[in-house]
Amino acid sequence: MSRIVIRPRVQIPILVVIFTLWTLLGVTYFTSGDVVADRDWFRIVLGCASVTSGVAGIWRALRLGVVIDAGGVRVRGFDSRDTVTPWSAIRSVDRAQIGVRGGLPLYAPVLRLGDDADAMPLPALGSYSRQDAERKVEQLRSLKRGTPSS
Asked: Where are the domains of the chain?
């Protein structure tokens, strides 16, 4: 099975722009040269922290998405560790409404794990269209059927 990476189309560019601006804000602390020459440690630390957190934010934003491979489904979140679910732990893949955004229902694939109460929605694969969400569910089902451990 080849590796498939699905990334959010709108969220990544917005986050990259925001964190680039944050990084540039940190860089502006050093452009006048007075901060380093005067040894203004507060502004030096603040500038370094802004640059470091901005670069880390850009890195995390570029990694967002869902990775599907022979090992299972890996969800790469912005503010959390990667969540890996092996194919053997996935009982079924369904489509469900996982929320409402802007007054419109958001549909996404939901991985059903061991019990009925154990459900893991994949909001990165969400869509306002039922048909698009169902297409993604069918793709995940076919990938699950194609794994040797299923």
From this structure: 4-63, 70-145
The whole-model pTM stands at 0.74
pLDDT digits (tens, 9 = 90+) for 8-51: 888 899 999 999 999 999 888 777 777 766 787 888 888 899 99
Two tokens, residue 39: 């040894």
CB 110 within 8 Å of CB 96? yes
Distance separating alpha carbons of residues 136 and 125, to the nearest angstrom: 8
Beta carbons of 11 and 49 less than 8 angstroms apart = no
Interval 110-138: pLDDT, tens: 999 876 668 888 888 888 999 999 998 99
Name 78's Cβ contacts closer than 8 Å, sequence gap at least 6. Answer: 15, 60, 61, 64
The closest alpha carbon to 95, from 132, 68, 147, 70, belongs to: 132
Q: Of the candidates 96, 84, 91, which has an alpha carbon nearest to the alpha carbon of residue 127?
A: 96
* Beta strands at 65-69 and 104-112: parallel, antiparallel or unpaired: unpaired
Angle between helix 11-31 and 41-63 (nearest 10)? 160
